Amino acid sequence: MRQKSSVESLCTKYPESVTDKGFWQAKKMASPKLSPAFDAAVNPTFWILCLRALGVLEHHIIKVKFDRIANKNYHHNPELTDQYIRSFLKDKTTYYILLDEIQLVDNFEFVVNSLLYGKKF
Question: What is the pTM of this model?
């Protein structure tokens, strides 16, 4: 039986069980008041590491940061936002979408719901 990596363990257990102490020391230094479990849960990098450890292909992980100036044009146009996200979908396999600061997009609920009822995510 194959042994799980520390990142795979993160995906299935509490983050405190991680053996890679350097990762958590860096996280604690970045946000000393937050517990590692909470910090990991809100950090998109954590989820990307988990997905990669589980064998998800890089191009099947879509990350959009709406708090960046380059994405400001999507804030007031939910249709354009939906089109932009769907432009990354190249086949009918499962994709994982991480939408950072999605609440900045007007009517973001419609964007999220339209993605839920579209291709596999």
Answer: 0.63
